[in-house]
Amino acid sequence: MVSLSTMTEPQRNDQELRRLEELHLLRSMGVDPYPTSFNKTHDAATILRDFSDDAPDALNTVHVAGRIMTVRRMGKASFWHIQDHSGRIQIYLKKDDLGEQYDSLKLYDIGDIIGVEGFVFRTRMGEISVHARTLTLLTKSLRPIPVAKEETDEQGNVTRYDAFADKELRYRRRYLDLIANPHIKDTFVKRARIISVMRRFFDERGWLEVETPILQPLYGGATARPFVTHHNALDVDLYLRIADELYLKRLIVGGFEGVYEISKNFRNEGMDKTHNPEYTALEIYVAYKDYVWMMDMTEECLNTVVREVVGTETVLFQDVELSFARPFRRAKMFDLYREHTGKDLRGLSREELLAAAKELHVGVDPKASAMKILDEIFSVLVQPHLIQPTFVTDYPVEMSPLAKAHPTEAGLVERFELFINGNEVANAFSELNDPIDQRERLEDQARIRADGDDEAMSVDEDFLQAIEVGMPPTAGLGIGIDRLVMLLTNNDSIRDVVFFPQMRPEH
RNA sequence: GAUCCCGUAGCUCAGCUGGUAGAGCAUUUGACUUUUAAUCAAAGGGUCUUGGGUUCGAGUCCCAACGGGGUCACCA
């Protein structure tokens, strides 16, 4: 039996106890179960790509490494599959080559990580494999991993049996998910590429990537409930940022003419398929530009991202084909109301809007503000129709306390939101840089807040001082990265595009 | 937060109107030197999420809690 140490030791099941015994047996045989390195020369995928039946000796010495995923023992020969970051490759192990070590192979398990030196060949059944000359244990695994069998038919279609599918376990133990369902890595690789293409797009144009505080004494730049934390040395409460907007604008005041940040934001609200308490947003601000310019830039940026990451200008999401070909549709908000409700809602009073909502069978709280009613009608009757990328422009000023008033359209601001597949993906405006107007708008917000809406913004005096120093005309844009990734990777839950989605603690 | 569904072996799942647990893979032992969801033979493995209740008897029925998923509400 294994001597259990005095350190905290979890309950072990029979399989785990057996693996511990194997570990000790291997040690007693002089095998280091956790050596420091291995000189890996080839990825599985590289071998599968480079092997040629015309020159079978070309890959005469390869060093591969990975996790044992399948074991087929046939007496004095065995076939294993190992999995590395590029895929799987079969290893052929023969007693003739490994001698005494072959007999200790029973101490190796699915889940162990090994290194193999050998030559590449094609088996009688046609599978490109590595014929092992030497085998090295690189990491002994003490816990069984989910084993999903797969069958590949003549056409190359893969059928999975007993795939590791429990969503809770997949999210809580993402490492097991990544091992057992390696295809999900594609989503995360694409996520990284989406961000890297965007970063390059901005960098090439001379805009500076910056970092601004996550811990903020006042939260602003959006309407949302924040997380609160406490700084002991200062003995003050701080908020985890809900947006970085107000800090990026301070940098524009400071003289940078283009800044962006890929920002983890935190919102203390409900969780569902499209909301995780922490999420990633891109925000970018460019001086001397307005929202029309920003629409062009957004279009070009997203078109570039889609072409580089997906390879085409169209993306299949669920059953819908989304076209990112330029130009995207542009429509004024109140024109869309007319298009989808048959009504002109512009300039209507709260009571008139309430009546309109009733006529349109949109249920709203009778006490709701005019803006809430407009918002509700939009999300019920307009938004679901915005499937192909659509810029919705010119919002009511009350909905947009940080956006610049439209010069010719009274009551509206220079703002757009980009909708794709019925969801908001981007939000942008010509930034309000009139300090008097900005102060009034924030004071309005503060009043709404005092009336009980804890999502309304507060007056950030330091921000207002910055604007009073003078911010040049500036266009700003925010893009919800997680939702963009969902669209481009055909995932309908944010939990599938975030490695470690927020979960309730177990037990 | 409201509502519906789910929680059985390491994984994927059965378990009918209540009679104290089953399969496949994984694991163990044996056979097999080009197999591939390898095959063949045998074996071990479960306080049925937790706590109450009804009952002679609960995985199964009832209540509550915990965890997950879906829908709605709030929001990006």
Give a brief outline of the structure.
The chain is 30% helix and 26% strand. It is α+β, with helices and mostly antiparallel strands and 507 residues long. Helix 6 (185-204) crosses helix 8 (291-309) and helix 7 runs parallel beside helix 13 (461-470).
Quote the average pLDDT.
92
Share in helix: 25-40%
Secondary structure tally, helices? 14
How many DSSP-defined strands? 20
Strand order of the largest sheet: 8-12-13-20-19-18-17-16
Estimate what percentage of residues fall within beta strands.
25-35%
Helix-strand makeup class:
alpha+beta
Shape: elongated
Largest sheet: 8 strands, mixed
What are the key terms here?
single chain, 507 residues, alpha+beta, 5-stranded mixed beta barrel, 30% helix, disordered N terminus, RNA-binding
Explain what this protein looks like in three dimensions.
The protein is α+β, with helices and mostly antiparallel strands. Helices cover 30% and strands 26% of the residues. The chain has 14 helices and 20 strands. The strands form five sheets. Strands 8-12-13-20-19-18-17-16 form an eight-stranded mixed sheet, sandwiched between helices. Helix 6 packs across helix 8, helix 10 packs parallel to helix 11 and helix 12 runs antiparallel to helix 13. The radius of gyration is 29 Å and the shape is elongated. The relative contact order is 0.09. The N terminus is likely disordered. The chain binds one RNA strand of 76 nucleotides through helix 1, strand 1, strand 2, strand 3 and strand 6.
